[in-house]
Amino acid sequence: MGREFVLACDMRFAALESAIFGQPEVGFGLIPGSGAVRHLARLMSRVRALEVLLSAEDYDAGMAECYGSINRALPAAALCDFVKSLARRIASFPASALAVVKERVNASALAPAEDFRRDSSLFLDCVRNLPLAAVLAIWKEWSLVSPPLHLKLNYHVLSQTPR
After folding, report:
1. Which residues partner with 58 through β-bridges?
2. pTM, entire model
3. What distance in Å separates the CA atoms of residue 71 and residue 14, rounded to the nearest whole number?
4. N-to-C CA span, the chain
5. How far apart are CA 20 and CA 56, in angstroms?
6. Angstrom distance (rounded) from CA 67 to CA 40
7. How many domains does the structure of the chain reveal?
8. Other CB atoms within 10 Å distance of the CB of residue 140
C-alpha cells in the first residue's frame, strides 16, 4: 500500500540511489486494491502499466521517472533542497489560482471515485479466494527475513504461491 499512497500524491520525487517501486500483488494472486491500477494507467500509459502490474518487477527511481510514475528522480543529496524550493515557489502563488488549476487538472486526469471503489472490491474478492495457508507462509517468511526481501518480493511470492 505504500506505493499506492505515493501514487495518490499530487507530485512524487525519489532518490536515485535508493528508491525502489513495485506492485507485487499479482504474485499473490491479487490485484492492487488502493488505486495503483487507475493511477499507473493514467500516468504511464496502458502498455507500461500492464508491464508494471503484470510483471510484479521492481523498478528503480530512474525507471519510474522514465515510465512517468514519479515527477523526478534526483540524487539523494539534492532531493530535499529541490522539493523545498519547488514547494516554496508554489506556495508563493495566489492560493485561489492554485486551487482552480488543481481542480481542473483533477477533473481532466483522475478516474471517478467509483472506479477506485471497484478496484478495492475486486481486491477483496481476490483475497477471499486465496488459500490462506499460502498467504500466511509468504508473510511469515517475509517477516523473518532481513529487509532486502522486499526488494525482490515478486520472486519470493512466485516461489511459494501454489499454481
Report:
1. 22
2. 0.75
3. 8
4. 24
5. 12
6. 9
7. 1
8. 11
In the numeric block, which cell numbers belong to residue 16? 536515485
What CATH number is given to the structural domain containing 59?
3.90.226.10
- Which triple of cell numbers denotes residue 132? 490462506
Cell digits of residue 87: 514547494
Containing structural domain, residue 62:
2-160
- Report the amino acid identity of residue 83: V
Q: What pLDDT tens digit does each residue of the chain (163 aa) get?
A: 578 888 889 999 999 999 999 888 888 788 888 888 888 999 999 999 999 999 989 999 999 999 999 999 999 999 999 999 999 999 999 999 999 999 999 998 888 888 888 888 888 887 777 777 766 766 666 555 544 445 555 555 455 555 4
Secondary structure, 3-state, the chain: CHHHHHHCCCCCEEECCCCEEECCHHHHCCCCCCCHHHHHHHHHCHHHHHHHHHHCCEEEHHHHHHHCCCCEEECHHHHHHHHHHHHHHHHCCCHHHHHHHHHHHHHHHCCCHHHHHHHHHHHHHHHHHCCHHHHHHHHHHHHHCCHHHHHHHHHHHHHHCCC
